[in-house]
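Here is one chain, start to finish.
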Amino acid sequence: MRLFVTGGNGFIGSVVVRALSARGQTIRCLLRNGSRIDRIRDLPVERVTGDVRDPASVVAGMQGCDAVLHLAGISRWADIHSPLMEEVTVRGTINVLDSAEALGRLPVVFVSSTLAVNGSREPAIHDEESSCTLDLDRYVYARAKREAEARCRQAAARALPVVIVNPGEVYGPNDTALVTAGNLVDFAKSSTVLVSRGGTSVVHVDDVSAGIIAALEKGRPGERYILGGENLTIRQLAELTLRILGLRKRIRTVPSWLLRGLAGVASALPVSLPFEPAVVPYATRYWFMDNGKARRELGMTFRSAEETLAPTLHWLREAGHV
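Its structure:
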């Protein structure tokens, strides 16, 4: 098979590409001009220049391929409230789906997020069928991913074999942009560790990669699969990080109302904060997930939180971040 991959140079995408290359698959990666390719430079992948926002480059790059893995998206919190959120996440997904349909209904795996499933103010477990109770005007990342998922289901209703996967909070080595590993760096470097009242589903990048590949091989079209590991509160995440690093520090929980107030002020005024204001609405909710469907239907297993964080923290130490 020749697989067309968007976002193949990213944190998750590069692990997927490496795993598929090790199986002997032919990989074609869509890369923007100037994209960093450090994580896939040594791999025998075909590179085509294009952008998911440009339909012509998507269909041209997809020509001759047998299936599609769509991972391209927005990863910087600073871009969440920019026009890129709609252009890349929604419009880009439409372009990928339209191209796959035009080229003979190629199988597609769309990589969404557990943030598109649901988050709650109190601890609760969510699954693929959970109703979304979020105010989507505030949770624009979740809104964009949900809209992209809706376009996938519409395409599936037209007989395009598209499967959706929803990774949790992904950790692992080589998170060079510190997209999620930045949380662990903050815990390690702060004299007093400040945490919010919320929680997340922690998952190793290798498990997410395996889930994406399994979704291509075994997933049912039109279905979504949660790729999440152990559910931890933010306090538990900080405690585990400090224990693995052998550090003893005081951990203080900051009230959600205070964090939201500070984030609101920072958004309205040129005020500098020690955290990204766009993170606050997400960090003050519980994104606890049930991975049972992925285990049953895709044959997935997931590492524990400790098995996920230990190699991540080892890499962070080796790279001089902590």
